[in-house]
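Reviewers of the previous submission asked for a worked example of the structure-prediction workflow described in the proposal, so we include one complete record here. The input consisted solely of the amino acid sequence. No template or homolog information was supplied to the procedure at any stage.
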Amino acid sequence: MSAERAQPLYALGLTESHAVARLRRRAVLREASPGAWYLDEPSWEAARCTRRRVALAMIAIVLIVGGFVLFIGGHAG
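From that input alone, the workflow returned the following structure tokens.
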């Protein structure tokens, strides 16, 4: 979506919420003119990639810790 196609939040199916505020802070949802908003697609894609990397890192940490716990538990007994 481009600034030329900006619309009010209600037309985008959105209301003022914590999620909308977060998207605004991350420059994913941008105000083209007072009350007219658009999705900055490159920023959206960058935010998605960041979330994916964080999720994969969290999974890796859980697996490493779980493996360590199983390894130590197996040798304790």
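The two ends are 60 Å apart (CA to CA). We consider this example representative of the routine output the project will generate in years two and three.
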